[in-house]
Design a protein that fits this description.
By secondary structure, the protein is of the alpha+beta class. Helices cover 57% and strands 14% of the residues. Helix 2 packs across helix 3 and helix 8 crosses helix 11 (294-318). The radius of gyration is 35 Å and the shape is rod-shaped.
Length: 319
């Protein structure tokens, strides 16, 4: 099962004790995954459909628990889309439909292909109801990527109004969600790992939250180790490159002037660099007699380099 599927499985088993929270969660599911049938054997029926069996079971339970209504259930082969693996619930009785729509403060959205739109903010006025609404929206039309690969949370909405409504609810919990248009849909998404963790906490997916946190810790440790290794590799590369250049300068000075003709400190540092090409400045200073600090060794090597540059310029002038 995918990570997204596991999150939905966990949330599908979470039920609020308060009726107003059940209504808020069902309202989100109705808004994002229901429509009124226009033809077929049951025209005018309110149909809720999903590709997740656990979500379908929860929607059935919420409807029965909250309104004492048992929707008819059937699979996607019978549905107008003809998609196998799609689970649908149908409510045909107009009085039952009216009872549900009144409670969830929804109206038919004929501009949105006969779906529903929650037209009253009273449904998610309370903090707990906003949490339930976001949970229901994710169950109905959301997904979350495998955190081992990438951090991406999204909920697909039919239009800008629904997307804006959902984004505002997320922002009330400090979640900075964005909206992007994908084909005919408006997608509310979050790509920051920390904020996705916060969203899981808002929805009540505590097991998934811990799994995601463990993955984030491992990834951050791995990235930290890689950064340290890369930094060390770069430093070693710079040290070796500098040592090679210094050795070339010293050989030129030895050939043209002779190390024996140099001051004692300069000659000693030159000989140590030739003998220990991979040693750091600190190590060269410790091996010196008497010991010299890093800045002292660096000063001597720079002086040798300047001497080598002067010799090269003299050779070029002769040519």
């Amino acid at each position: 099962m995918s990570f997204s599927g596991m999150v939905k499985e966990e949330l599908a088993g979470r039920f609020s004790e308060a009726r107003h929270c059940c209504i808020a969660e069902l309202a989100a599911m109705l808004e994002l995954s229901s429509r009124f049938e226009e033809g077929g054997e049951h025209p005018g029926s309110l149909v809720i459909h999903t590709e997740n069996e656990a979500v379908s079971r929860k929607c059935f339970t919420l409807t029965k628990k909250t309104f004492n209504i048992e929707p008819e259930d059937y699979h996607g082969e019978e549905h107008h889309t003809g998609k196998a693996g799609e689970y649908s619930l149908r409510i045909s009785d107009p009085l039952q439909q009216e009872s549900i729509l009144t409670a969830v403060k929804a109206r038919p959205d004929h501009d949105g292909e006969a779906g529903l739109y929650i037209c009253d903010d009273l449904v998610f006025q309370r903090d707990c109801c906003r949490r339930a609404f976001i949970r229901g929206a994710f169950l109905a039309a959301g997904s979350i990527s495998d955190p081992n690969k990438a951090y991406h949370f999204e909920i697909v909405c039919q239009d800008a109004a629904r997307a804006g409504q959902l984004r505002n609810l997320m922002e009330s919990f400090g979640i900075s969600a964005r909206v992007v248009i994908r084909k005919k849909s408006h997608v509310v998404y979050v790509k920051d790992g920390t904020q996705i963790v916060d969203l899981l906490a808002v929805m009540g997916a505590n097991v998934a939250l811990m799994d995601l946190e463990n993955i984030r810790i491992v990834k951050e440790m791995r990235n930290s180790v890689n950064r340290i290794v890369n930094c060390e590799t770069a430093n070693i590369g710079k040290t070796v490159s500098a040592a090679v250049s210094q050795a070339e300068d010293i050989r030129l000075v030895a050939e043209k002037i002779g190390l024996e003709n140099l001051p004692d400190g300069l000659a000693q540092t030159a000989q140590l660099r030739i003998r220990f090409p991979e040693a750091s400045l600190k190590e060269l200073g410790i091996m010196s007699e008497p010991q010299v600090g890093k800045s002292g060794v660096n000063h001597r090597l720079r002086k040798l380099s300047r001497m080598a540059e002067a010799l090269r310029r003299t050779e070029e002038e002769k040519l």
